Write a sequence for this structure.
DNA sequence: GTCTATATACCGATAGAC
DNA sequence: GTCTATCGGTATATAGAC
């Protein structure tokens, strides 16, 4: 099947990308092996999946700092002592989750742009991919947005850099389209900010769209059409 | 001076609305008098201003739950014991702040729509007012967005209702414009959601716009132009 | 009305048995 | 590799002096 067409429906996207928690946790395990006390990969990955899922769920309900490690222990079925075999302290748990997510997003977005040739196609692919990605990793996107303000200076810097990076990916496409006379954009950076805000709404207000029965594909199409109007692209 | 023209620049807006912390806290005092131990209005209001400002500032940095009452006590210059004369527990403090803010916003937005006759003017006035309001009460807007997920079921319901209410104000104007053949809108509710997302970006990403030197008026104008394009309104 | 001192509970983190 | 028991510290909330 054609790869590009493939990306346009959500189910294929989900299957094509290495986005399952097991795959993500395997990577985490390999990278943090020296700081994780458990040595058997199979055991470690199984529990890391539990720990991260539980952390994201509990934090979504009450915030990372308000989530006690006792809560976490209960939710993921490991004792307090066992938890500390997977991270040296609560801060490190936060760090791993955020870092790994940022990387995955960066990699996925870059790939998708690289595979398109025309500015408008690049933009559409980027929009769809970002929205699809935030659907698959909804808990992570919500978490990283909500916890950003509570992080250490260093982690905050990384979070800001990540936000600006995504915005720059969008802005660069807008600049390209503007230069080639394809887009009617006065201020690509401001326009990119607005686009980013629309992308974010999918994971910040997911409850609203779910309640209304708006699918991720419908949302993506709607946003794309709105942006086409803003930048003066006429869809057939 | 003409009231409507008045509303179009930020400084006049700031002066015209009863938005100072003193005024807000006077209202709070009168409403919660029976649950506040301090009886002298002058003393109470002075300290309520300190308490709310400190709460909003500290929560913006680390979250409401992570803010200890010791932190708060230090920041606002009152002892732990004194604080408890103004609220019965931490939850009540949260409740007061959220309730009073919601009311103020509702009142201000309704007033501004009421004063305009034409759909497009209503929409422009609503956009500007929402953005201006979120600039004046930036701390509050940021706080209520970030803390929403950590609230009690009841408070969450109120927060959601408030979100949907603002969206409905926008949607109703879009419906009106559509019916009169003035706006080219296929789905007013979805469009209203997108508009809301753009409005929110001003207070959620304020650091970004401040750093780039974008003023509140510039942002408001930019968003208004983008929306005009989305709904097919041609500005002269 | 505001203070200091304190009660009680729970937090993150660790030690040591198994 | 996982458990239970427990450490010192800090949280909310209150009692009683001034």
């Amino acid at each position: 099947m054609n790869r590009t067409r493939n990306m346009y429906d959500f189910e294929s996207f989900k299957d094509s990308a290495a986005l399952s928690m097991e795959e993500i946790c395997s990577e985490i395990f390999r990278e943090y092996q020296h700081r994780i006390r458990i040595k058997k990969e199979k055991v470690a990955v199984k529990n890391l999946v539990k720990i991260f899922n539980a952390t994201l769920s509990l934090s979504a309900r009450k915030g990372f700092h308000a989530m006690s490690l006792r809560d976490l222990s209960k939710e993921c079925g490991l004792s307090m002592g066992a938890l500390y075999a997977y991270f040296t302290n609560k801060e490190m748990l936060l760090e791993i989750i955020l870092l790994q997510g940022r990387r995955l997003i960066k990699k996925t977005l870059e790939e998708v742009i690289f595979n398109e040739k025309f500015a408008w196609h690049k933009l559409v692919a980027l929009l769809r991919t970002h929205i699809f990605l935030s659907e698959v990793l909804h808990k992570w996107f919500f978490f990283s947005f909500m916890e950003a303000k509570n992080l250490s200076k260093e982690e905050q810097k990384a979070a800001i850099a990540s936000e600006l990076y995504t915005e720059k990916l969008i802005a660069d496409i807008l600049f390209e389209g503007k230069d080639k006379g394809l887009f009617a954009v006065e201020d690509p950076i401001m326009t990119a900010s607005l686009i980013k805000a629309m992308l974010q709404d999918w994971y910040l207000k997911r409850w609203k769209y779910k309640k209304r029965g708006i699918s991720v594909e419908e949302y993506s199409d709607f946003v794309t059409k709105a942006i086409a109007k803003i930048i003066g692209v006429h869809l057939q």
About this structure: Residues 153-179 of chain B form the longest helix (27 residues). Chain B touches chain A through 36 residues (CB under 8 Å).
